[in-house]
């Protein structure tokens, strides 16, 4: 994340996370540290994985005290090993203690997503298919989680509801059918917007093609249905496969030759990467 993104879109979220953890004061820290004492603490990885969120980690401490200094020995996207010293944070010991949990929560969560995404993306190497995330993100964590997907080698689907047209089953039901939904979207949406339609059976695939959908999402279809859908579409639209896609079952989709595979599991099911701050001492 660059400084502009951090300032405009992330800082207020980080501040809310800090306020959640410190409603009035950090009683434990204030009990043992009555005044400012300069200190240093190590950032140590306790599990092999892919690191993501270092600048967010840094920013937590900077928002508590702009004089805090963080030095990293790796960068986002690097593979890290258990026991690796990844950086050091220097500043008022009270700040290091009070910001520790929030900073680690971000770094562990984002690194876990990057690690899981990397493991899934590796399974698509050698194919034309791109791995996409979804909007199945933790509330108020989307900007961080979608960034972590990119760090792990995945791609972002639309960021939010304002970002693109995706006509799902309930949109289609509300409009009265696939053709009508696509027609209404063409009339309403800016011409620069592509129109994606979610389909659940081969009849809907045919309707979406005839209606001129730009992208057709094959949702929770069987392997045979997806193969037939690809044949029916015949290059007239881009194809996305979706529906309970995980690292364990993505292999069934890799030979279809589709443009995209989307997986909510990248953000909602990735375990955290174990990371700690250790060896705090005064300097």
UniProtKB/TrEMBL annotation:
UniProt KW Transit peptide keyword: no
Keyword DNA damage: no
Record's GO cellular component terms: cytoplasm
Pathways involved: Cofactor biosynthesis; NAD(+) biosynthesis; nicotinate D-ribonucleotide from quinolinate: step 1/1
Residue ranges constituting the Quinolinate phosphoribosyl transferase N-terminal domain according to the UniProt record: 26-111
Catalytic activity: nicotinate beta-D-ribonucleotide + CO2 + diphosphate = quinolinate + 5-phospho-alpha-D-ribose 1-diphosphate + 2 H(+)
EC number: 2.4.2.19
Top EC group: transferase
Bilayer-crossing regions: none
Gene Ontology MF annotations: nicotinate-nucleotide diphosphorylase (carboxylating) activity
GO biological process, one term: NAD+ biosynthetic process
Domain (Quinolinate phosphoribosyl transferase C-terminal) ranges: 113-278
Family annotation (InterPro entries): Aldolase_TIM, NadC, NadC/ModD, Nicotinate_pribotase-like_C, Quinolinate_PRibosylTase_N_sf, Quinolinate_PRibosylTrfase_C, Quinolinate_PRibosylTrfase_N
Residues that bind substrate: 101, 134-136, 158, 168, 198, 219, 242-244, 263-265
Gene3D superfamilies in the cross-refs: Aldolase class I, Quinolinate phosphoribosyl transferase, N-terminal domain
Superkingdom field: Bacteria
Keywords: Glycosyltransferase, Pyridine nucleotide biosynthesis, Transferase
Function: Involved in the catabolism of quinolinic acid (QA).
NCBIfam families noted in UniProt: nadC
Family affiliation: Belongs to the NadC/ModD family.
Subunit record text: Hexamer formed by 3 homodimers.
Protein known as: Probable nicotinate-nucleotide pyrophosphorylase [carboxylating]
Source organism: Candidatus Mediterraneibacter quadrami
Name of the gene encoding the protein in the UniProt record: nadC
